[in-house]
Amino acid sequence: MVGKWHLGFFEWSYTPTYRGFESFYGFYTGSEDHFEHESLGILDLRDDTLPVRDMNGTFSANLFTKQAVQVIKEHSSSRPLFLYLPFQNVHDPVQAPQKYIDKYSFIENKTRRTYAAMLDIVDEAIGNVTRSLEKAGLWDNTLFIFTTDNGGRPESGGYNWPLRGQKDTLWEGGVRGVAFVHGPMLKKTGVKSKELLHSTDWYPTLINLAGKKEGGRVDGFDVWETISAGKPSPRTEILLNIDLAPKKKRYRGYYEGAAIRVADMKLLVSCPNTSWFKPPELCNKETVSN
Questions:
Q1: What's the CA gap between 33 and 94, in Å, rounded?
Q2: What is the mean pLDDT of the chain?
Q3: Where does residue 150 rank: exposed (0-12), middle (13-18), buried (19+ CB within 10 A)?
Q4: Beta strand pairing call for 265-269 and 258-262
Q5: Which tens digit of pLDDT belongs to each residue from 129-164?
Q6: Model-level pTM?
Q7: How far apart are CA 11 and CA 27, in angstroms?
Q8: d(Cα 62, Cα 69) in Å, to the nearest integer?
Q9: Phi, psi dihedral angles at 72 (to 5 degrees)
């Protein structure tokens, strides 16, 4: 694993190399400085379990790309490889090397300009990782998945237009994401799926595709036939959250609330009204809902 963990570090047993990963290079928390690798003034960059103290000034996307390429280069093709690479981009703080920001000088909004630079550099990084897989002779037998985890936050440059809402809300702009899958094992290529899928479906799908069976009862479904062959999804609903009576606001001012999606219908309970946010280049105003 290379990149962002953010799934607990209270005890060592919560961290990546104690949770099944043979190696880890990255950080445990979130929203840390992309250059200094600090959160709340505390260094948060690890090589397995050891702190990395000599990378101050190196942008995280470049750092993680270099490490991922090294993992691929040193990997023996006689063994299977699972590489989990959650980049820090395009998460806040909104930062990027100046040469990438300068490429987007035509964007008037400063935050949006830097956000575009962050997206540019992670796009370049993914290209470098792809080329390293090709060079190592692994690409033609690789299933490549690119996916997001949640919607963007307008104040940090991320817009979800024309979807309603943003990250930290249960409206579609907060919970609906996009992904693409590439690999020779796909039965159909160049197609778009509009089936109902959930992030928990990746685990059983990948485990079964690798020839194993997941142990015990899991939340997700094996959706490989949906992704690769265009068949209907075995999933008919998504439970997004179950806080029916939130008593206080979250740390960013949003209530938890409850929401469930069933087929083409969605029910939201205790979810404050929110708006549609257009990106500045379209219209720097909110469209307030009634």
A1: 9
A2: 91
A3: middle
A4: antiparallel
A5: 999 999 999 999 999 999 998 999 999 999 999 999
A6: 0.90
A7: 15
A8: 11
A9: -65, -45
- Token pair in block for residue 126: 């993914």
Tokens 């964007």, located at residue: 107
Q: Which residue, chain included where needed, has tokens 């949906």?
A: 226
The greatest distance separating any two alpha carbons of the chain, rounded to the nearest whole angstrom, comes to 59
The continuous run of DSSP H or E covering 134 comes out as helix 110-135
Note the residue count of the chain.
290
Residue whose tokens read 């959706």: 223
d(CA 132, CA 134): 5
Q: Residue 43 contacts by C-beta under 8 Å, 6 or more apart in sequence? A: 37, 51, 53
Encoded tokens for 230: 């265009």
End-to-end CA distance of the chain: give it in Å, rounded. Answer: 45
**Of 276, 278, 279, whose CA–CA distance to 290 is shortest?**
276
pLDDT tens for 5-57 read 999 999 999 999 999 999 999 999 999 999 999 998 999 999 999 999 999 99
